[in-house]
């Protein structure tokens, strides 16, 4: 009877230990959940659809950063305005979509360290009388709604100016330029240059105006107070320092990135 009692006790202790181990494994799996990343895949060459897949500079950089951080993730294309709602409502963990870091957005969202320096460009048809940002006055100008491109045009034309035509994305804005609905489109330089390079028959030209359009920086966006930010920042720094960032940059833009300028912003 005594031996049976001891065996029963040992069996109980073993079962308790096994249950404890199971709880620990379950807890780890829950903690290391797959990260949900949202984007607006209509912003080539940063993110766009190709044969049913989301591709682009941001997509390759995201992959490298998440690998460095040791995180699993799923990238979802949900559109520009919805991605801000998803991050604010914490139904997504992170967003990447050529999102400019600015003081206004920082009141609602957290951002990673900067990963890309950009400026705005003006797209017009060949032969247009528009040669500078000042020439946009009195003209119908297309912008992507809710972007810093819209803000840049509002500073020139006025916030409530009815000549500012707002579109769901830059692709639609450029289509309207081709169809004569707007006389110019203001968007980010990499996007403008990519369109002109890939569509020579469209007879569209793009130019900068440093006097009116200052440099800005893109970052990964998180819900306010996200614990993910620090891990992503550390991984992004390593990807920039170990040359992976430069490889990705050259693949998509064909030139060397200004690493020093990026690191000065960290």
Automatic annotation (TrEMBL):
<feature type="signal peptide">
    <location>
        <begin position="1"/>
        <end position="19"/>
    </location>
</feature>
<dbReference type="InterPro" id="IPR001638">
    <property type="entry name" value="Solute-binding_3/MltF_N"/>
</dbReference>
<dbReference type="GO" id="GO:0015276">
    <property type="term" value="F:ligand-gated monoatomic ion channel activity"/>
</dbReference>
<dbReference type="InterPro" id="IPR001320">
    <property type="entry name" value="Iontro_rcpt_C"/>
</dbReference>
<feature type="domain" description="Ionotropic glutamate receptor C-terminal">
    <location>
        <begin position="34"/>
        <end position="255"/>
    </location>
</feature>
<dbReference type="GO" id="GO:0016020">
    <property type="term" value="C:membrane"/>
</dbReference>
<dbReference type="Pfam" id="PF00497">
    <property type="entry name" value="SBP_bac_3"/>
</dbReference>
<protein>
    <submittedName>
        <fullName>Basic amino acid ABC transporter substrate-binding protein</fullName>
    </submittedName>
</protein>
<keyword id="KW-0732">Signal</keyword>
<feature type="domain" description="Solute-binding protein family 3/N-terminal">
    <location>
        <begin position="34"/>
        <end position="256"/>
    </location>
</feature>
């Amino acid at each position: 009877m005594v031996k049976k009692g001891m065996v029963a006790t040992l069996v109980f202790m073993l079962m308790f230990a096994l249950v404890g181990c199971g709880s620990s494994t379950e807890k780890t799996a829950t903690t290391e959940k797959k990260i949900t990343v949202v984007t607006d895949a209509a912003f080539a060459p940063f993110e766009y659809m190709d044969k049913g897949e989301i591709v682009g500079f941001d997509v390759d950089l995201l992959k490298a950063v998440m690998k460095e951080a040791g995180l699993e993730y799923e990238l979802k294309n949900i559109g520009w305005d919805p991605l801000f709602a998803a991050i604010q409502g914490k139904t997504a963990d992170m967003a990447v979509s050529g999102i400019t870091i600015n003081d206004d957005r920082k009141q609602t969202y957290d951002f990673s360290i900067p990963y890309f320096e950009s400026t705005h460009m003006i797209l017009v048809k060949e032969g247009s009388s528009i040669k500078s940002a000042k020439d946009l006055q009195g003209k119908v100008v297309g912008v992507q709604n809710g972007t810093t491109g819209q803000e840049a045009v509002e500073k020139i034309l006025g916030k409530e100016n009815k000549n500012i035509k707002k579109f769901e994305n830059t692709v639609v804005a450029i289509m309207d330029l081709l169809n004569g609905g707007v006389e110019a489109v203001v968007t980010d330089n990499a996007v403008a240059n990519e369109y002109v390079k890939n569509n020579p028959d469209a007879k569209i030209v793009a130019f900068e105006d440093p006097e009116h359009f200052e440099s800005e920086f893109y970052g990964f966006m998180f819900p306010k107070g996200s614990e993910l930010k620090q891990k992503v920042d550390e991984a992004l720094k390593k990807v920039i320092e170990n040359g992976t960032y430069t490889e990705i940059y050259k693949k998509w833009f064909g030139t060397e990135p200004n690493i020093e300028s990026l690191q000065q912003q960290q």
